[in-house]
Amino acid sequence: MKKQTRIISLILTLVLCLSFSVFATEDKPAYSVEGFETVDSEGNRITTGRDATSSVAIASASKYEVSQVGAEILAKGGNAVDAAVAMGFALAVAEPFTNGPGGGGFAVIHTADGENLFVDFREIGPAAATFDLYLDAEGKYNGKAGTGGLASGIPGDVAGLLYMLENHGSGNLTREEILEPAIRIAEEGFYISTYAANAISNAYEKAQNFPEMQKIYWDENGLPYEEGHILKNPDFAKTLRIIAEKGRDGFYKGEVAQAIVDSLAKYEGVMTLEDLAGYEVTVTEPVSGTYRGYTLLSSSPPSSGGTILIEILNILENYDVSKLTVNSPEYIHLFVEAFKLAYADRAQYMADEAFTDVPLVGLTSKDYAKERAKLIDLEKANEYEYGDPTLFEGSNTSHYSVADVQGNCVAVTKTINGYFGSGVLVDGYGFMMNNEMADFSTSNPESVNKVEPGKKPLSSMSPTIVLKDDGSPFLVLGTPGGARIFVSVLQIISRVIDHEMSLHDAICVPKIWNTGATNNFQYETPLKGYEIYAITEETVAKLTEMGHDKIRTAASGAVQAIEYLDDGTVYGTADPRQDGKAVGVE
């Protein structure tokens, strides 16, 4: 893949045909979003104008500006990985409350010559992060895994992106050229959208305890910046310039590393320079499975996402889902019961494979899924215990997608966990630190996912690539959404394959969730234009009779997806629940 030239990427859905407005003035941000509206006059999310088709390549991200960055890199001769890396750094600037250098993530890469890679740059528990560190004098959880200096794992974001660039980039563009768009956005700014303004406002209470965060995200009156403000972050631009010049060592050693350690220590952190210098990216094969003739490539442990996604689809494969009306009582019941079965297994078995044996073969086995499916009563909701997959053994986040017509594609999901992570902003360097320690089990010392030094916390991130029966790519997708991620991704896959929905409609139709073994189900309010798929009161009443407990929720996730069409072009679309728009390159 490294030697291929002009390979084009697809990441988040934006429509742009290389008519970039990137010449910022004093009054304009680095990348123009002029004419792109995300919310109508009544406050409804706008579902149109989010997609694009290209005969070359496409990028789709949750921020329009970031999709423009991906298309720009592709147009300069970069490949899909080059674009993915540039988008990763740009997204860190333009959506700083969900991801960035202080976090981590996963990437799934498929190359035109058939190579499949899973790049794991998940955060790691510092050497001094023990289980007891998160307990009070009475042996109860003290809350420090969620906020403050003890909440942060060793970040992997920069190491992961640079590994991808150095090992799978085209070689046509320098590191400085790849980071230049992100630096431009940091220096010249980006418009705060409705979605971003809400995120900043919702973090107001968190920021009360962190004056460093206030300096960047509050105005001179001590209030969160509002929609329409052009947010600039020169401190972050400085950090990116150091990375562009010095590479990995510019972040994990030297002044930036010292600033990370000092900033966390101010709030009780225990991370050391040795922790940072010793961080390593892990590269393996993606977890794989099949669904109705298609091959799925997704995230391996320490993410539970790919494994549990495949387990659920294997369970659903025992039923003729195509005959069920989407979001009917029968449809919701079947999906929720399948979710519960898989979540029970997730809680019991999924963790960092370096610390425990994860029965991947059994969990992704068709035979195991068939046995689990037998437990489903199509008339009544049930609660489930975990199964025994060993009997079947053989031997808050951002997502973006990039693809080109040659068959090179990348799906990347990055995070700092909660909005604005731990609340700790690295003073003078402009980026937030993660609160990934909250993804460990901090209350059960017997859990396979308990806090341990050097361990990666369990994740649900599920960057996914779907291949056709001939091995060529079909779909590239993923989403943020915490524990809802993999059930959101699998619903899109099922709707496209089982119900032959367009990719855009599959994303816009309301999703359903269950995030545990209990009988509750959660659902979205429909977007304007998709009311026909609403979960009605009649549907809720029927499900209640079957034993389900409903919990209405707000929208969740922001699926950024690409589809390889039969005519040889690539189609990208962005979830209208956030600020994305796909951009194609011609």
Protein described:
This protein has 586 residues and is of the alpha+beta class. The protein has a domain at 284-398 and 459-566: Serum Albumin, Chain A, Domain 1. The chain is 31% helix and 15% strand. It is built from 18 helices and 19 strands. The protein has helices at 64-75, 80-94, 157-168, 175-188, 194-202, 204-207, 211-217, 234-246, 249-252, 254-265, 273-277, 305-316, 329-349, 360-363, 366-373, 485-498, 503-508, 537-545; strands spanning 51-54, 57-61, 104-110, 116-121, 190-191, 230-231, 282-284, 287-291, 294-298, 398-404, 409-415, 464-467, 473-478, 512-513, 520-524, 549-553, 560-564, 570-574, 583-585. Strands 1-18-17-13-12-9-8 form a 7-stranded antiparallel β-sheet. A 7-stranded antiparallel β-sheet has the order 7-4-3-11-10-2-19, covered by helices on one side. A 3-stranded mixed β-sheet has the order 14-15-16. A hairpin with a 4-residue loop joins β10 (398-404) and β11. The longest helix has 21 residues, at 329-349. The radius of gyration is 22 Å and the shape is globular. Mean pLDDT is 92; it is low at 2-25.
